[in-house]
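Batch manifest, entry 17 of 40.
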Amino acid sequence: MTKLLRLACLSLLALVTGCSTPATTRPDARTPLLLVSIDGFRADYLDRGDSPTLQALAAEGVRGDGLQPSFPSLTFPNHYSLVTGRYPDHHGIVDNAMTVPGLGRFTLANRAAVSDGRWWDQAEPIWVSADRQGVRTATMFWPGSEAPIRGRRPDHWLVYDGDMPYDARVDQALHWLDLPAAQRPGFLTLYFEAVDTAGHYHGPDSAQTDAAIAQVDHAIARLVAGLRQRGLYDRVNLIVLADHGMAATPPNQRIFLDDLVDPSHMQMVSEGAIAGIVPAPGHEDEVAAALLKPQPHMQCWRKADIPPHLHYGHNERVPPLFCLARVGWLITRNRGTVLHHGKAILGEHGFDNADPRMRALFVAHGPAFRSHARMPVFPNVDVYPLMTHLLGIRPQPGDGHYADVADMLVPAAR
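Output type: structure tokens
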């Protein structure tokens, strides 16, 4: 493209078709971007008939055949991949549970760890980049948003409260959009966890999961109604997605590591679809020999030997031995740890991200998005460059590719 043509593209963007907008040029500075996460909403849940609002948004705008999560297909790693455009191995949140010398123990329930920016600062989330570049931000419970990352938090944020009613969450987001222009965020997030919770405790094919889908769809309907009342429905770019899918895990499909290794000879950092293991000093060869031999329902590797397609195993936070269960099976220590919060786990995620059951929801609607469009499955790290493009901010280096998702936008917004 010649210099003259590039100048023409920039000056006549709304009139010229086929010209790309640089990442530093905002397609419409007055267009807010609202990112909604429905935790655990598997891609094919959209066809169950329990979410008419989401189905209408998908029909009017863009529907993805599936959003492929990053590996491991877990909640915190993938929420951070969505807002950094990096694989977990590159952004540092490599699991929902981690133990790191000098930092201690990280779990979803450890409030001190979750709000400690040192866990998160291997990558810069979009709200930090946006803030540096003059775009105000607001987050509703997004993983990482409670911590000062590289010295910054979102302009508006709340401490996670799983008991906060969904109507209140929606109303708070709408309130942020009602703020005076100088305070109004250009980037906002919302988060709902009911579908994931129901999938874990009742299984992905249960009536309880269908009810949770309907519950969240009601919240999305409230959001859409609020946007319409404000004249914003066609003036806000809305992305509704999930972090991962869900697979059934029958109670009789468990792998007990204590049957394979003396429990006093290892530390189990995480368990479930994946397991990270640190051998006790002096027992490295013994533990490795027991785990690395062929197993019927899981495969284990030294971290350096994890298959390349998983993009995992180079970060120092990944334990030296790593096991991945076959989809539908769970790895745990012993029969006394099968329950979680006193309940059997009948659904789980974290498995190989190439499995269709791990695919997540993706729906987009708004002035930048095409109408009645269908996108093939694409990796969730592509969402970040899409969002930085829509916000007109310079992206951080990452693993996603804007070119792979540009076709979901109308020509004037590309």
